Fold these 2 entries.
Entry 1:
Amino acid sequence: MSETTRIKIKHEIGQYECLIGGELISNAAEHLKAIEAAGPIGIISNNTVNELYGTLLRDSLQAAGFVTRTILIPEGEAYKNLATVEQVMDALIAQGMERTGTIVTLGGGVTTDLGGFVAAILFRGIKLVHIPTTLLSMVDAAVGGKTGVNHKSGKNLIGSFYQPDLVLMDVHSLASLDERDRISGYAEMFKMGAVCDLDYFNFLTENMHELLASEPNDKLIQAISKSCELKAEVVEADEKEAGLRRILNFGHTLGHAIEAKLGYGKIRHGEAVILGMYGAGWLSNQAGDLPDAEWQVLADNLRHIPLKTPPGELDPAEIEAITHLDKKVAHSELHWVLLSKLGQHDIRSGIPTVMVRLAVEAINKAWQGREA
Ligand SMILES: NC(=O)c1ccc[n+]([C@@H]2O[C@H](COP(=O)([O-])OP(=O)(O)OC[C@H]3O[C@@H](n4cnc5c(N)ncnc54)[C@H](O)[C@@H]3O)[C@@H](O)[C@H]2O)c1
């Protein structure tokens, strides 16, 4: 496999690096020393990931003299909430965490979002290193500084922008990932190509099977690196989501509504985004400027992704109503991220309710009768 790729991400008050390659967990101490991280190191993870990679990480850190504390959070999106944040902070404080210490998140997007939020508020902010272990968290959640948790009335309603000091993406950790989580991560890369880079979109669709394979390979490193580079460009231009960064929500307005309706745990975030991109693509064609031929390419490629959990019949009125709970509603108006072309975004508001319901009908039709 190729050498480690390094991508620099600049932000308001500095910059950090994302390292993408192999053996990054077993060499974590070396990379933490390079950013002058100090102990105690509060490792935030869950049982599954801790069993798989916790010892590898602790061995590296402890051999280099770091004092570590490991806090395990319950598994799943349902626990990405303020109650878990409080439990993690209670445990860290009880175990002697200090202002000068470092939080290391080890896990998927739930862990990086929640652990990042803890780092943002504990002692008014402490050093943060993300070690994302799902494809989705590598290409999306761990990069860009959005941290937070869910509220009972909607996803990610509580949080802050808090940039990590380092992100280590060890592709070897992806070997143990469930197939549905690979597909979920692929969906976020697909989104990136669809909204901002046609060449990347073509690369992803042409190499889908290799990118979904369980063995980490050079094409996967290339795809993760490109996704991070594109995300870096977007967040550098608009760190706090005042404008351009909204394009990263392509497929997410309907996706979040579908996820909320079907229940976190039943559908993966990226799986819901696949359906959401289909609906947003349909709207781009019917209510926007996306030409028929390009809509067909988008639709065919989305239907081609081997979704393991067909959504069943979605109620258009219900899904449309849930979109209004989404935090992207500004002054009661939803901003829809659509496409004017493949690889080119088009933000629109004032999409009629009836069109949104029809977009949900289009999703139903596309996945009707499909089995895993
Ligand atoms: N902050 C952001 O910008 C941003 C962007 C996109 C998504 N997100 C958030 O990310 C979350 C979804 O992330 P996710 O899909 O990684 O979910 P997740 O964190 O729940 O991980 C999915 C599953 O994979 C397991 N797992 C993790 N790494 C593994 C590995 N290497 N091998 C085997 N199993 C492993 C986890 O224990 C979990 O069961 C959502 O909460 C979403 O809101 C945040």
Entry 2:
Amino acid sequence: MHAAVVTDFGSPDVFEPTELPDPAPAPGQVAIDVTHAAVGLIDVYLRQGLYQDQTGLPQPPYVPGLEVAGTVRALGDGVAGLRVGEPVVTLSGNGAEGGYASVALADAALTTSLDGTGVDPALAVAAVPNAATAYLALTEVAHLKPGEHVLVHGALGGLASAFPGVARALGAAGVTGTVRRSSLERARASALPYDEVVPADDLAEAVGDRRFDVVVDPVGGRVRTASLGVMAPMGRMLLVGNASGDWQHTVPTNALWGGNLALLGYAVGFHLPHHPELAGPAASAALEAVRKGLVQIDVQTVPLSQAAQAHRLLENGSVAGRIVLTP
Ligand SMILES: NC(=O)c1ccc[n+]([C@@H]2O[C@H](COP(=O)([O-])OP(=O)(O)OC[C@H]3O[C@@H](n4cnc5c(N)ncnc54)[C@H](OP(=O)(O)O)[C@@H]3O)[C@@H](O)[C@H]2O)c1
């Protein structure tokens, strides 16, 4: 198979196109002929070596890529409910790297059929895994209730884009997005189902006296602390990423006590593999939201041989929507 291998921790230059033996599925896994592999900021962090001391995370040389779409090539022992040739997409949290390749392995429990859905595989891999993550974060962690108001930071980002559609499907009364000023124009032209998108730079002024029951924060840094001032009593903030790159930022915890607020972390990769029973409902909700056009994220396809360039684009913040590699 063709693969884009990370040969060392470091800059995007560490990518090397490599021919590797086709992998065979272990029991409970499927092998997938990959047509599209998603690229996310987490791939960038792993390649940079940000988590190099954390056990269980990949060490070079490795093939990155957590989410793929394609067709089932082979079934491991004990796999039922999927057939060879079936179009599929995998959910985040597969636990496995290996997506930046022409053949990838995935846990069957976290592999969802696209048969008969009419969902394009490029959109599927760009939107379904993140929409499933959004569903899990909003239902299992933030316990979003119908009629509540949601605020989503970094509103056009890969993960963030999945939240407004899923929140609406769960009955949210309104969804507001925030972006940096440089993205405001693009946000206002976006097909994502936000009621409004406001500048993140001065959050308090931008939202006035509106208050939010659930805040979704994949950005971190200053906007995280600013969010405490615009949350409704009993509000919950989902900490789901740190796109700001501000790893030193801390939040004043006495503000939680005084404001009746909660901060809740969620990382799908450390949750879903331990709760595969949640994958089916999350995948169904995600696919339904995508099929209804609620997660219309822009998808930019780049050949697998240009994986390094895809990472450069993501690192310098010039991706509108999501990048998908095609082997
Ligand atoms: N918790 C989970 O299970 C999970 C799953 C997937 C991803 N993540 C995490 O979520 C975060 C976002 O990942 P992604 O793949 O969605 O990334 P992405 O597509 O690059 O989106 C990041 C967004 O953050 C915004 N942003 C604000 N300040 C920024 C800054 N200083 N530098 C760069 N971007 C900034 C950007 O929006 P504007 O420029 O428009 O403001 C951008 O659209 C990452 O930390 C990733 O690890 C978590």
